């Protein structure tokens, strides 16, 4: 039997593409989350499919690079980390509500926000199913009170 590929080793975009293109049974046959059973992996895949609705997603677009010094200094002066995180959550709620009103058939029934903190790299990953941020609004993503 061929060795399975680690699901956790894939980039987010790769996982979404696989969820869109393959059935859960085909994914379980080719991939794994080490240390979990096939049923647990199947359950994880069902949750991720529900969260992302991959068949409704358009192409991924990566914008820019790391924040500029001005953005970082501005955020540092105006926010502490908790406030910045709360502002991200507030923006997710606003975006999801707007999307739900404009495109009810293509919007998830529930807003789901996923936050992961990697203590080793001291990196926070924030994901939601609210529909994304317009490119021109990225610089104001955590500005207090700014809602796009």
What does it look like?
With 148 residues, the protein is of the alpha+beta class. Helix content is 43%, strand content 11%. The strands form 2 sheets. Strands 1-2 form a two-stranded parallel ribbon. Strand 3 (113-118) and strand 4 (123-128) form a beta hairpin. The radius of gyration is 18 Å and the shape is globular.
Summarize the structure.
The protein has 148 residues and is of the alpha+beta class.
Helix content: 40-55%
Secondary-structure-based class equals alpha+beta
Outline: globular
Model regions low in confidence, pLDDT < 50 over at least 5 residues: none
Mean pLDDT: 83
Main pleated sheet: 2 strands, parallel
Order of helices and strands: EHHEHHHEE
State the end-to-end CA separation. Answer: 51 Å
Considering the chains and any ligands shown, give keywords for the structure.
two-stranded parallel ribbon, 148 residues, globular, 43% helix, alpha+beta
Write the layout of secondary structure elements.
Layout: E1 5-6, H1 12-21, H2 24-30, E2 31-32, H3 38-52, H4 69-78, H5 81-102, E3 113-118, E4 123-128
Parallel strand pairs: 1-2
Antiparallel strand pairs: 3-4
């Amino acid at each position: 039997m061929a060795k399975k590929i680690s699901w956790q080793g894939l980039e987010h975009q790769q996982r979404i593409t696989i969820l869109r293109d393959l059935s859960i049974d085909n994914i379980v046959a080719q991939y794994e989350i080490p240390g979990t059973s096939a049923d647990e992996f199947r359950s994880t895949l069902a949750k991720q499919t529900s969260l992302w609705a991959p068949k409704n997603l358009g192409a991924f677009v990566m914008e820019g690079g790391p924040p500029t010094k001005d953005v970082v200094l501005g955020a540092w002066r105006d926010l502490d980390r908790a406030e910045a995180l709360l502002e991200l959550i507030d923006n997710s709620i606003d975006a999801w509500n707007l999307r739900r009103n404009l495109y009810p058939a293509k919007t998830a029934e529930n807003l789901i926000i996923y936050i992961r903190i990697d203590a080793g790299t001291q990196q926070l990953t924030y994901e939601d199913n609210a529909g994304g941020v317009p490119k021109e609004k990225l610089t104001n993503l955590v500005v207090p009170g700014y809602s796009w």
